[in-house]
Amino acid sequence: MIVAFSVTPLGVGEDVGAHVAEAVRVVRESGLPNRTDAMFTSIEGEWDEVMDVVKRAVAAVEARAPRVSVVLKADIRPGVTDGLTRKVETVERHLAEQ
After folding, report:
1. Which of 8, 23, 38, 72 has the lowest tally of Cβ within 10 angstroms?
2. In the chain, how many domains are there?
3. Is the pLDDT of residue 90 over 80?
4. Is the pLDDT of residue 98 over 80?
């Protein structure tokens, strides 16, 4: 599965980069395939391992903020691996055909 999620600390002011970095650090240290962009961090793996990483990433932010908001989207497709790369490659291939 691939999970794209965003963790936002609330009640800490406008500059939240350091808080978000703690969540991203947890994801990167997990060893699972992942990508971070301006809006979401995506992580790929089995259900239990991915959700464990999301939970730990939220806890890392929660330790520094009085309130946390989480947005999560999941693509559950058993048997598919390297979806983070293959999904983008498919779109790029279609774009190149035009």
Report:
1. 38
2. 1
3. yes
4. no
Classify residue 15 as left (phi > 0), alpha (psi -120 to 50) or beta.
beta
CATH, residue 13? 3.30.70.930
Judged by DSSP in three states, 42 sits in: strand
Q: Could you report how far apart the first and last alpha carbons of the chain are, in Å?
A: 30
Cα–Cα dist 92/58, whole Å: 32
Q: What pLDDT, in 10s, does the model give residues 43-80? A: 999 999 999 999 999 999 999 999 999 999 999 988 88
Sequence letter at residue 30: S
Cβ atoms of residues 35 and 44 within 8 Å: no
Could you tell me the two tokens for 7? Answer: 């963790």
d(CA 81, CA 95): 23
Q: What is residue 3's three-state secondary structure? A: strand
